[in-house]
Design a protein that fits this description.
The chain has 45 residues and is mostly helical. The chain is built from two helices and no strands.
Length: 45
């Protein structure tokens, strides 16, 4: 966090990081393999 000189820059980074994390970090244990693969294909499309 020390590399951000302005709070606004940190907030923008955190917002983008959260959305990307939600998109690509699907909780594998919460879904079956076919459903997981379908969700991944939809996210990448």
């Amino acid at each position: 966090m020390l590399r951000f000189r302005r709070m606004r820059t940190l907030q923008k980074f955190a917002a983008v990081h959260a959305s990307v994390d939600n998109l690509f970090n699907a909780k594998r244990s919460l879904s079956s393999r076919p459903l997981f693969k379908a969700n991944r294909a939809a996210a990448l499309a």
